[in-house]
Structure formats: structure tokens, C-alpha cells
Amino acid sequence: MPETVAPGAREAVQPPRARGAVRFSVRAARGGSALATFRHAGSLRAVFPRVRPGGAVEAVLVNTAGGVTGGDRFSVEAAAEAGAALTLSTQACERAYRAPPGPPGRLSVRLSAAAGARLAWLPQETILYDGAALERRLEIDLAPGARFLMCEPLIFGRAAMGERLTSGEFRDHVTITRAGGPIYRDGVHLSGDIAATLARPGIARGAGAMAALVLVADTAEAALPQVRAHLPETGGASLLAPDVLALRLLAPDGEGLRRALLPILDLLTDDSLPRAWRL
Amino acid sequence: MPTATDARLTLAQWLSPAYPTGGFAWSHGLETEVAGGRVADAESFEAWLADVLEHGLGRTDAVLLAEAHRAAPEELPALDAEARAFAPSAERLAETAEQGAAFARTTAAVWGLDLPPLTHPVAVGRAAALMGLPLPDTLALYLHAVTASLSSAAQRLVPLGQTEAQAAVAHLAPLCARLADEAESRGRDELSSAAWAADIAAMRHETLQPRLFRS
Q1: Which pick of A44, A186, B7, B30 has the fewest CB atoms within 10 Å?
Q2: Residue A93, by phi and psi: left (phi above 0), alpha (psi -120 to 50) or beta?
Q3: Per the annotation, which location comes first and is thus the protein's main one (chain B) (predicted)?
Q4: What are phi and psi of A148, to 5 degrees?
């Protein structure tokens, strides 16, 4: 950047940042579920691959900006109406690139499920590059009797390149509410030498990837022993309530994380995991 | 408003191991780490506890305590619900809920306070506010009590000698003081934890056999 740029003008000479928003809802239809409303704007799209008859509507989010960097804003809002079934995933891993000074990239996801609805949030891995600045907010609102499954895999640096996160800022904020009250809450704030933090014994013992999974379903208690049977020693699962199962998993890298997650996701999705997870 | 000395004596009583909150029954997942050989001596224990304080329970409980100290009475139920929702596992939820309920029961009875069963940090923060006890001292002593309680668990589990356990508490006291300072400016929205390995150990404690502790 030329030294002649006046202080304060830096923001103005940055290229325009990506903006993207997707908003839709799904209703119960004869023999399954169907898209009820749909809008999108900017660099975020959703495609709806054909699924088996009677299955959930599958929404695959596509970030046409190719990733997230500082100043980007993406938002997803989706609702599963009463009795409808909706599964959201992403077409590719989300790459959080090294960000210029200034505000972080922001990703906001707000999902809701009405009574008797089935909702799943199953994005592919988010990869934090060295120097990334990303702030995510995931808000889920469930009606009593709605079923919900989420899995958020996170990879710290591009392992194939031997990348270590020696700088950067990552904030994550997750809230699941039911009938207005919180039933699951998570928050993460990592900054600075993230690799050094991850090396610590109480944090990640040097793991390069982490996933959080939550199942809200009346089958959660019955599923716990089966879920545990699939977990390596670097993962744990527990019931926060009889119908709320939480899982946390660490793995050396993204590949190891996915290998450990796949059987668990197959189990919890009745083998209807979005195809993107298979590639 | 109590004098500074009165306030310190009340906090010393509430946050002493003799106060009947049943703190001796909980290891916060440490028992799993000892059984797995990952915590095996004073050095590995101090490193684990420093992480739990700085990136896990210490950090989150300090924020919750500070928020409870500031909260209006009608805001407490939502704050306490958030504290419960933030617990990463069944045993960790029981750990904070049962110690908090026991703290509230005794404190309400002795000081005549209106203190319902709340999670541990929320109960202590609320009681301190009701008694006019200053937030900085309450935070520092609460974190110090967590440190002492887990060091006492380590004494039984690792095992550590009495001197080693007390050295760990002394080494971590400055961290408690720093976390207490930082928590005063953090709000509920900034609740965060990265003590994932410690959380996983707490989850795996549920199926650990044999076990002495309830978490």
C-alpha cells in the first residue's frame, strides 16, 4: 500500500467486501417437504438437489466469493415449518483467509424449527488460515417437539502446507433455545498465537481439528451409547438433558476428524447425510 | 455496607473448603486425565489447571459471577439458565448446580438472604451483591477457591504431596488475580471456553471405572 494513503483512508482503498444473504423456508407437503419461500442476494446462494421421495429438503449453500475474509458479511436464515424436514449443508469447506486490518468477516446463521419439524445444520469444515479474522454467530430456535442435529467441524490451518496459526482472531457464538429458554450455549474466542494455545494440555493437546455436535431429539438418550462406541479417546459425548446430546471431538487433522464423524453422522441422520459429505 | 474487613471475612468463610458446598466430591474431569496418564505429576497438573482457569471454568465462571453481581433480581433466572446451558456435560452441570444449590441453602439460612438454588458462580455473585460485598474481591477469592479445590482433588488423585499441592495454588494465584480483573469488563455475550480437552475428559468421566469423584 503506498505510503501516501492518509490515515483513516485505508478502509476506503480496500476492495469492496463480499456480501451474501440467503433466506428461505420449508413446509410440509404431501409425501415430504417442499420449499415455501426463497430469496438470495449477493455472493451466497443455495441449491436444492433432488433427494429421495419423502425425504428432507436438502439445501446446499454455495459461497460464490470463494471464502471469507475481513469485512465480509454473510447471513443465512432458514425455517422449517410445522412437520417439515430441512437439512442444510455447504458445497465446499469454508475458507477463512488471512484478513487485512479492520473488521472481521462475519457469518450469521439463524435457523428455526416448528413443532414436529426436523432440522439439521451440517456444514462442511471451516478452515482457518493463518491471520484469519472470523466472527460467527449461530442461533437456533426450536419449538417443543422439533428435532435438531448440528455438527460444526473446524480446522486450524492448512495441514498439507504445514501451516500453523500464529496470528488471527476467531469468535464463535452458538445458542440453541427452545420455547424461549437456552438449552445449549457455546462460545469460543481464540486470538494471537492460536497454535500455541491449541498445543496446551487442557485445550487440544496439539490437535489440528475440532468438532462440536449437538442432537436435540427424544432419541438422544438411546443414541448416547452408540455414539460413544464410535468415539476415539479424543472425543466425548454427554446428555445435557434427556433429549439433548452434546459431543466434542478433537483430531490431528481434518481428515481424521471427518473419518471419526462420518459413522456418527450416518447413525444420527439415518444414513441420509448430504452427498457433499461423501466427496 | 460492611467494612472492608467484614466483607473479606464473609468471603473467606463462603469460599473456604469448610463451607458446606460439597466441593471435595468434584474433580472437573481431572480423574479421567489422571487415569489416562496425561496428568501424572505437579508440573502436568499445574499446566492442566492453568488451562481450566484461563480458557475454561475459571474464565466462564468469572463472567457469570460478575454478571450475577450486577444483575437485577428479575434478570437472574435468564442468567442462570444460560450458565446451565453453557455446561459442557451432564456431570459438569451437576457440579455447578449442586454446589450452587448447597451454597445458596447455607447462605440463605445463615444470613437470612433471599437466595434460590442457582449455579455456583451465579449464587455467589448474587449473594455477594445482596450483602454489599465488592466484586473484585469476590471474583479473586472465588477463582482462588476453585484452584484450591482442584489442587486438593489432585492431592488425592495424582497423588501430589501437600507441599506440591500448596505450591500449585501459590503459582496460580497471580492468574486468578488477572482473570478476576478481566472478568469485570466482560458481558454474558462474551462467554467463551476453549478448554475442549478438559471438557472431553469430563464427558468421558461418566463411563470411567473405577472412580472416586462425581465429575
Answers
A1: B7
A2: beta
A3: cytoplasm
A4: -140, 135
Collapsing DSSP to helix, strand or coil, A141 comes out as: strand
C-alpha angle A203-A277-A43 in degrees, rounded to nearest 5: 90
Inter-chain CB proximity B51 and A200 less than 8 Å: yes
d(CA A155, CA A35): 32
pLDDT digits (tens, 9 = 90+) for A139-157: 999 999 999 999 999 999 9
Q: Closest by alpha carbon to A96, among A129, A72, A122, A71?
A: A129
- Cβ atoms B143, B58 nearer than 8 A: yes
Q: Report the residue count for chain B.
A: 215
Sheet holding A32-42, edge to edge: A32-42, A19-29, A73-80, A105-113, A133-142, A169-178, A181-191
A128 contact B CB<8A: no
Using CB atoms and an 8 Å cut-off, which of residues 212-251 of chain A contact chain B? 228, 233-240, 246-250
CA distance B185 to A172: 19
- Nearest residue of A to residue B30, measured between CA atoms: A202
Work out the minimum CA distance from B149 to partner chain A, whole angstroms.
Answer: 17
Q: Which domains does chain B have, with CATH numbers?
A: 28-205 (1.10.4190.10)
User: CA-to-CA distance for A253 and A168, rounded, in angstroms?
Assistant: 19
The number of beta carbons lying within 10 Å of the beta carbon of residue A73 is 18
Torsion over CA of B204, A175, A250 and A72, rounded to 10 degrees? Answer: -170
Q: What ipTM was assigned to the predicted interfaces of this complex?
A: 0.96
Nearest to B203 among A184, A201, A237 (CB): A237
Distance of CA B20 to the CA centre of its chain: 14
Q: How confident is the model at residue A12 (pLDDT cuts 50, 70, 90)?
A: very low
